[in-house]
Design goal:
Layout lengths: L1 H8 L14 H9 L17 H8 L4 H5 L5
Helix pairs in contact: 1-3
């Protein structure tokens, strides 16, 4: 899953039965910034190209891109 790969890239892997460090909302931020494309037609989930996720995960500004926007 994209959120698990992003969490790992941030150095905070999502652990089973613990609060996730990177959630689906983080992935949606990357979609909104056109850094990930949703390949799924399913409204209850998303699907992403593994190569595209890998490109996002090596960005130096990954933490800032996943952060919620300042209001």
């Amino acid at each position: 899953m994209a959120r698990d790969r992003i969490a790992g890239a941030l150095g905070k892997p999502n652990a089973h039965e613990q609060k996730a460090s990177a959630t689906s909302f983080v992935v949606c931020r990357f979609i909104a910034r056109s850094l990930l494309i949703d390949l799924s037609g399913n409204p209850s989930g998303t699907l992403h190209h593994p190569g595209q996720v890998a490109e996002v995960c090596v960005r130096g500004d990954l933490a800032e891109l996943g952060a919620p926007p300042l209001v």
